């Protein structure tokens, strides 16, 4: 994604949003593909097939990516140039450190709904794991496709708005709506035991997909405001090296919170839900 920031300046937000639509489109196809493959080739070969698909597209991507700035003649590259620079985060203004911390907490919460939406829906409908590939449980996996479809729209719209009204301004609004979607739609769906339909939860999936998609596409361009274009790669890598630890911890933390609750069914998700919203 650093290549996009190199080639676009004035409409960088829109360009980034369009580029990130590819990730959302993959998020639409992959859950449906897994659902179709599992009954045919089971888990191991389903994952292998998706891995080969990713290998193909990533190879094409790496082959055709080009930097806007040519490599400087006579400039020696050392091993230190290939690792994140702590000085980038601890710069004088503190803007990079605050942005990195914000992205860390955002991604810490972002992957919890994406991971647990199918299992939550299965528990919500009181369905067995054996029904996970057919009947009503199949909708649990289609919810991920719906979420990512909404995410595609959110990424483009947020990128265009960011160019008009400010990258950090739109990012803050998106995070606010992100929190509202979790605390005002998903949490009530967890706590209200006598709901007869899925409307509240589907609304959450649509809103969360839309605003979380904007967070994905806006993070790179917010980082791009903190540095010169030539330094963008170092800033991006330094930020996401720190953020990676949050991503690694998010799912185990949510799983631990689910294990703490003694309730069964959808009620056991309330603490993980609350953690997601507050984070």
TrEMBL record:
Key word Signal present: no
UniProt topology in membrane: Multi-pass membrane protein
Pfam families: MFS_1 (PF07690)
Coiled coil: none
Gene3D superfamilies: MFS general substrate transporter like domains
Transmembrane segments: 12-33, 45-64, 95-119, 139-158, 170-188, 200-223, 235-258
Localization (cell): Membrane
Similarity comment: family membership: Belongs to the major facilitator superfamily. Monocarboxylate porter (TC 2.A.1.13) family.
Keywords: Membrane, Transmembrane, Transmembrane helix
Name of the molecule in the record: Major facilitator superfamily (MFS) profile domain-containing protein
InterPro entries: MFS, MFS_dom, MFS_trans_sf, Proton-linked_MCT
GO cellular component entries: membrane
GO molecular function, one term: transmembrane transporter activity
Top-level division of the source organism's lineage: Eukaryota
Residue span, Major facilitator superfamily (MFS) profile domain: 95-279
Stretch forming the signal peptide: none
SUPFAM superfamilies reported in the protein's UniProt record: MFS general substrate transporter
């Amino acid at each position: 994604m650093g290549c996009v920031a190199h080639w676009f300046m004035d409409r960088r937000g829109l360009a980034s949003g369009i580029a990130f639509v590819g990730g959302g489109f993959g998020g639409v196809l992959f859950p449906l593909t897994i659902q179709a493959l599992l009954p045919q080739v089971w888990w191991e070969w389903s994952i292998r097939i998706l891995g080969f698909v990713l290998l193909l597209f990533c190879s094409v991507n790496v082959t055709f990516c080009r930097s806007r700035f040519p490599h400087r003649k006579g400039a020696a590259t050392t091993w230190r140039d290939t690792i994140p620079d702590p000085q980038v985060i601890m710069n004088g203004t503190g803007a990079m450190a605050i942005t990195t911390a914000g992205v860390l907490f955002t991604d810490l919460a972002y992957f919890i709904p994406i991971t647990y939406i199918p299992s939550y829906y299965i528990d919500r409908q009181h369905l067995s794991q054996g029904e996970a590939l057919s009947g009503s449980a199949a909708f649990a996996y289609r919810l991920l496709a719906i979420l990512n479809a909404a995410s595609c729209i959110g990424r483009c719209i947020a990128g265009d708005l960011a160019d008009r009204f400010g990258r950090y301004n739109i990012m803050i609004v998106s995070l606010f709506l992100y929190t509202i979607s979790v605390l005002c739609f998903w949490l009530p769906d967890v706590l209200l035991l006598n709901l007869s339909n899925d409307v509240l939860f589907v609304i959450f999936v649509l809103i969360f997909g839309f605003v979380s998609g904007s967070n994905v596409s806006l993070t790179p361009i917010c980082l791009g405001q903190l540095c010169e274009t030539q330094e963008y790669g170092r800033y991006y890598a330094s930020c996401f090296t720190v953020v990676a630890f949050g991503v690694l911890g998010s799912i185990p933390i949510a799983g631990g919170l689910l294990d703490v609750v003694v309730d069964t069914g959808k009620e056991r998700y309330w603490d993980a839900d609350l953690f997601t919203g507050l984070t």
